[in-house]
Each structure stands twice: as C-alpha cells, then as structure tokens.
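User: Hi! Is it possible to get a structure for several chains at once, not just one? Here's what I have:
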Amino acid sequence: MNLRRRTLLGATAAVAAVGATTACSAKPGGSGGSAVTGDTIKVGANYELSGAVATYGQASVDGITMAIDEINAAGGVNGKKLEIISYDNKSDAAEATTLANKLFTQDNVLVGMGPATSGNFKAIIPVANKNRVPVVSGSATADDVTWDGSTVQEFAFRICFNDSFQGTIMAKFAAENLGASSAVIIKDNSNDYSKGLADAFTTEFENQGGTIVTSEAYVAGDTDFNTILTRIKGQSFDVIYLPGYYSEAGLIIKQARDLGITAPFLGGDGFDSPTLLELAGASALNDVYFTNHYSSIDEDPTVQDFIKAFKEAKGAEPSAFNALGYDVGKFVADAISRASELTGDAVQKAMAETKGFVGVTGTFDMDGHHNPVKTILVIGLKDGVQDSSEKVG
Amino acid sequence: MTEFLQQLINSLSLGSIYALIALGYTMVYGIIKLINFAHGDVYMVGAYVGYACMTHLHLGFFESLIAAMIICTILGVLIERVAYRPLRNSTRIAALITAIGVSLLIEYTMMYFVGADPRAYPEMPAYLTGSFEVGGVIIRNQQVIIIGVAVVLMIALQFIVKKTKMGKAMRAVSQDPDAARLMGISVDRTISFTFAIGSALAGAAGVLVGVYYNSINPLMGIIPGLKAFVAAVFGGIGIIPGALIGGYVIGGAETLVSSIGYSLFKDGVVFAILILILIVKPTGLLGKNVKEKV
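Assistant: Yes, the chains can be modeled jointly so their relative placement is included. Here is the combined structure:
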C-alpha cells in the first residue's frame, strides 16, 4: 500500500511538474480549489470527443449540455448560471491529464466532469486530488476507480455502478428469476471487464446454491466459436453467462443458436449496441438478458420525461451514455446547490453526502467509497428488441 | 461420438478456408520464391466486395462470390505489377519488406473507407442459413457450401495447373525461370497469372468467411493469413497438394485444441506447429530435400 501511494505521489508530482508552468493562477497552498466570484459558475467537461471511443464522449456531453441547459433555463444554481468549458481529450489518457491540469489551474472550474472511460478517468484523478477539485464520471465502471480496496480517491466520484456489481446482480437474477441451478461461463480472457464480471457472477451464483458446470474462454477478435460451443452443447446446464462486448457476443449467440443451443444467454452492459442485433440477427436474440444502466422502455416517469425532452432537443432516441451524461450534469448541479460555499472542498463534501439523488439511471445514495448505491436494470430481448426491463439490486 | 463428428464438421469448414488461402501463398512462393504477406488482405478485400455486392447491389451469394473473385484477381495482378515486379531482381528481403508494407497499406486504406467497426453480412436466403441433422450431428448448409466451393475450386486449380498451357508455363517458370524464358514462355505474364489465380481463391475464401461468421473487419486478414502461411509451410511451401493438406491439418489442430478445453492456446499451437516443422522437416510434409548446386 505504501508502494502504491508512492507511485501515485510520483505520478502526481510528474503531472504537477507539467502543470507548473501554467499553475501561476492556482491559489497558494492549494486549499479548496478556486472560490467562485461573479454570476457564473464554471464547470469543466473533459471528454472523448474524437478517437477510439468518441461515441461514448460525444453522447455523454450531449447529455450533460442538455442537463445544464435545463438548469440554467430554470434560473441556475442559487441564482448563478452554470457555464461548461468543454475539451476533447482525443480518447487519450495523457491528453486527458493535460486538459485536467488546464481546467483546474487555468480555467479555474469548480467541478470537473468526465472522462467517460475508466482508464482515462483514473489518469486525471491525481490531478483532481492535488488541485482539490471534485471530478465526476458517468461511466467509469472498473471496480477500482474511486476505491482501490484500501484508499478512497478523495475528490473522485462516479454515478454508475461498478463492474462486479453487474455480475452479482445477474447471478441473483439467474437463480431467482430464471430458476437456474447450473450455468456455463464464456468469458473474454483478454479483457479485465469480462473476467471481473465472470468472477463476481461465479461467487454469487455459488452462494445461491448453483453450480458452474464449465467455463470457456476466448480472446477478443476471434470469430469461430463453433468448437467451444460444440463442447458446451454436450453438457447439461440452465443458462450461459457471457460477459463480453457486443462484437464477439453477437457472433457467439448466433453460432450457438445455429448449433441448437437454446439456453438463455446472460450478459452485461457490453451488449448495449445496435451492432449486437446486426451480428446475431433478430431470430437469435431471444431469451437474452443483460444488465444495463438505463432502458428506454422503463416506465418510470423520470425516464419517460427525459426521453421525451431528449427527443425534442436532439431529435434522436437517447442512449445509455446520454442518460448517464444527463445524470452527471444534474448530480453536479445538485451538489453545488447544497454546498456550504462555492469551493472545491465544500462541493466535494456535498457530493460525498449525497442521499436520495433521483436520476434517469436510478435513485442513489453515495457510499463511503464514492460509489453510488443504485439499482440496476436487467433487460430482456425478444427478437432482438428490448422487451422487458426489471430493476434489481 | 456425436460431439466428435460435430467437431470434425467444424474443423473441415475451417480447414477449407485455410486451404483456399494457403493455395495462393504456396503458388506465389513456388513461382517467384516470395512470401506474399499481402495475401491475407486480399482475402479481407474479397470479404468486403462480397458485402458490398450483397448489401448495396442486392446480388445473390454466387454472383457476389464471382464478383469478389474478379475484383481480387484485378487487385492481385495490380499488387504484383506495382509492388513486386520492380523488385524482381532485388534481394529477397527487399521484396518481403515490400509485401509487409503493401499489407499494411491495404488494411489501413480499407479502414479509412469503411471504419474499424465490424460489419455484418445481410440476412441470407434459406438455402444458406438452414441446417440439417444426421444422427445428432447438426450440419449447416453454409458448411456444406464452404467445403463444396473449396473442393470445386481446388479441382479447377488442379486442372489448370496440370492440363492447360498456362499451367505448363507455371510449372516451367517455377522450375527454372531463365530456361523457361529461353523456351519462349512469357515469365511476367505467367507470374501475373499466378497472382491472379491465388487472389481469386483468397477472394472466394473472404466471401465464404463473411457468410459463415457474419462478421468482417479491415484487420480480419492478419491472423487467417498467418495461419494459412503456416499451413503452406506445413505441407511444403510451393507444393499445391501440400497447401491443401496443410490447410486441413491446421484447421483440425485448432479445433482439436479447443475441443479438449484449451481454446486459449489454439493460436499458440498453430505457431508451435510452424516452429516444429521448421526444426524437424523444413521442407514441409511433401517437400523433398533438394541439394543446392554450388
């Protein structure tokens, strides 16, 4: 732990050295970030607007701007308007860190939002801690983002559930709702997300009295799964847990149905893409369930109001990232409105004390590890279309 | 037993695809001693041509297959003309490096135009998506078509090489290009023809894979290309029947490794076979030891 802290300090120091040339406007002593004067409160958005995961960042920022516009239209926060300063980190962790420095030391934002992915978000946390500016991610789901098992990242928060929670919930769903007592796992061995989900599923499924019949593995980029599926077909089991991304999951489900495997497929939020339907075909996507942050068929009025407003504002059906971005904007505004004063320290305290926040992706309290305690949706597909959604957790 | 037969069907389909790609490697090597690393990417282009024909031009499976073979033929000849012919008299390493360069060029040009995300082939007609059962073993029509198309193309190739004038010229050039030239054979034309046939087979393999796995992407040629290369070396590079045997052996080995529960090692095993064959019998299964004259 000591070692880890030292590397962290090292990273912070390196980052600080980069920022030192531009850090002249930072408050001496670095206590409490920058206080806000005037009629506007500046908030930063540091997102993947281009590069490998650009769709995540763009969708998040669309959600954030919509939330902030709504808040400003309704009079702002405590009479002050929110102003977004938005940058493109090009889906690159080093770029994200540089921009975080710029936002916190030059632009003097009160709160940072993003990046969208766990890796990039983790990269900026040391900068946030050093400058004492709270940062919030809507979609960094890796388990160790805000809490690595021993230390809490003081100024980092997220409003999405973490990966192992998805596995746990799916195991409960399989045992309680589908009455499954035996399962097969097919995981992507080149991917921490997939392995984390598989481990969490196994632990909980066995707690529920179930057995894991067999566990098969593949590597991202594979296209031929007939062999492992043929192996599975020879065994008896109730469900298949497939915690992978849509590009392989689509092919696995299709090839399994072609081989005559009819057991339900269960997965995580990695399934949430129109490409899944393209790859697997509608007829293969029956009895397929996956955990997700949000579903457009959720009848909750908060969700339906959001969908209606989003369609009016942007002319398109909102995705899970739009919804998560929207909640980030609302969460930040809510914390600022409850803060005792407009400093990073005060807003951080307000965020940590959040209770009963009502968002599109669920209602939650913030726990001691800066993770939300929220429900999760289990979405069922029928002929490739979302047919049922159930809140669990 | 059922499971074994099912796995056998799986391995025959996979092996047919490797064999089709390996034939192109082996013929090109046989004739100009060049390992054409861009060959796997010709296969990828074939898959995209098939996709474009089916999705945008709404052609049927066989029409798309032929269209892909034609486009890949042109591409193969073009690659040879532009990238390899000027280096005909250079060192072999220069040609090899060029081949790698051409490979990367094709991959990333394609990625620029179609994006990096995988694409799915359109919905196939019933005669392609259906399946039937023989004693508990499910055989998909696609698998029958893949094996069938592969076998027909291999027979056609064998006919061309053994019975036609062009085939005779190919065999002559592969034995001794200088002597062939003295006998009045156009060496350049023969080499172009070899690239044309090899690329057409790779294009066909691309469409078959697109239909079979329903997912194509601009980097899909890399791993199958390397495995087909291993297949060609296994059978004895430069020997046409060797490429066939190699293709089915590699397909079978891969399936066998996964079917006993070591799916993560399947690629490793294929390359272990390459190392082993290079140590034990570098000329390949059907290769003969030819003493070099000094």
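The CA atoms of residues 234 and 261 of chain A lie 10 Å apart. Residues 54-73 of chain A form the longest helix (20 residues).

User: Great, thank you!
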